[in-house]
Amino acid sequence: MGGDRNSHDAKVSSEEAELLLGVEDGLDPQPVEESLGADGDVLTGPSSWWNHRLCTLCGHSFRRGDRVRVDRGSRTVVHLDPVLGCAVSEGAEAESAAREGDLETAALSEGLLKAWPPLVEVSRIPLGDWRLPNPAVGLRAPVCLYCGHTFRAGEYVVVCPCRPEGQACGAAVHRDPAAGLSCWERWRPSGKVTVCPVTLAKVRNRPS
Asked: Is 76 exposed, middle or buried (0-12, 13-18, 19+ CB in 10 A)?
């Protein structure tokens, strides 16, 4: 019976991964047009010169779909997302709409977690988490092991289960398909980690 149950779990995991990747593709921002010489308020595209670079004000990486303000003259870019500390104000209505959008995304994420729970523990990055960028500290913030982007408050992640001496190494991977971040399913389709990617220590089985 144990073998049958394992086969069933593997099947469910595979179906779950396909579903979550489909959700991610459906929600992933798809800018219709992209100008490599963009200036003013634009959407970040896969070929934008600032994509994956770090914002000098908030320390977060620029992602595909991020609304930003570009100044070609000074070659600077700032986020327009009011949730990020460096955001350029677009007025109370725009900020309110952005926050309502974040609440809707969070609700969808929670619904997906309840409907299709992963085989690993998923955590939500809280405000003030040590993984969040803090330019005042002067140190580069940790990034997702798969996509290489910084973590943002409210995102769901899988933290490395190595836990040497009871403390996790802190490495994490996004697992937030509602936000277009199904990094965990892409990085570990099997849903398992056997060796810590940071310390290279063998992951211990948790006591039942």
From this structure: middle
